[in-house]
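User: I've been trying to design a sequence by hand for this structure and keep getting stuck. Would you show me what you'd pick, starting by listing the structure so we're on the same page?

Assistant: Good idea, let's start from the same input. This is the structure you sent:
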């Protein structure tokens, strides 16, 4: 039954997801063509795919008043919450794997950039951690208020995330990428960055579990 709910969500978001996938493929083609040196734009659209597309599923459910019917199904409220979180995680994993595949193809076309492969893979893991973190913050208010009523909270979360991540990217990740392109990262530096990124990923997964438990409590008490 959970798989059926996930399939339902996928069916209603596939057009939205296809738009972001086409944009990723467009920038992938531009990178292969030598217009772009890095995969920053592809990473950005992958992040939007993992974060915004699940939210569009909430919006479609609201419009169709799906929840009133869904809670009468055998899996009930718990199944609805589980399906939403599994969809978010699946999109994050799929976006991450797609970016890894695109990176490998790019390095096959440009062997001289192979020194930046470890940095690129760490960036993908960092992207997945960031997406999981934002999803953990966004899903509970959507469960409680719906997308329309929670839009102020969503704007605050997005604005706060951007305010933190943009300066961090410019001061840490962009120089890291630039150094890796020019001369590669030292083993010590690479190990330090890997430790930070993996710690952030573990923290994001733990926060996702806390978010799931919170959403479950919210949804069990929600009146329709």
């Amino acid at each position: 039954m959970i798989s059926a709910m996930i399939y339902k969500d996928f069916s209603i978001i596939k057009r939205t997801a296809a738009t972001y996938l086409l944009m990723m493929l467009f920038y992938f083609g531009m990178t292969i063509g030598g217009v772009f040196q890095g995969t920053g734009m592809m990473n950005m659209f992958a992040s939007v795919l993992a974060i915004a597309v699940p939210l569009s599923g909430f919006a479609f459910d609201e419009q169709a008043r799906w929840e009133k019917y869904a809670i009468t199904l055998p899996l009930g409220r718990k199944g609805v919450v589980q399906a939403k979180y599994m969809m978010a995680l699946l999109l994050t994993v799929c976006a991450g794997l797609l970016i890894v595949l695109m990176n490998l193809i790019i390095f096959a076309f440009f062997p001289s950039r192979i020194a930046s492969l470890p940095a690129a893979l760490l960036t993908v893991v960092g992207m997945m951690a960031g997406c999981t973190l934002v999803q953990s913050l966004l899903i509970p208010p959507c469960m409680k208020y719906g997308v329309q009523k929670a839009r102020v909270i969503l704007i605050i979360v997005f604005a706060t995330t951007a305010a933190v991540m943009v300066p961090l990217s410019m001061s840490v990740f962009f120089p890291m990428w630039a150094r890796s392109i020019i001369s590669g990262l030292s083993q010590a530096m690479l190990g330090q960055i890997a430790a930070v990124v993996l710690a952030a990923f573990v923290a994001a997964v733990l926060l996702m579990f806390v978010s799931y438990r919170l959403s479950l409590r919210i949804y069990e008490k929600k009146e329709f």
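That's my pick for every position. To get oriented when you compare it with your attempt: Residues 2-221 form one domain. The chain has one domain: 2-221.
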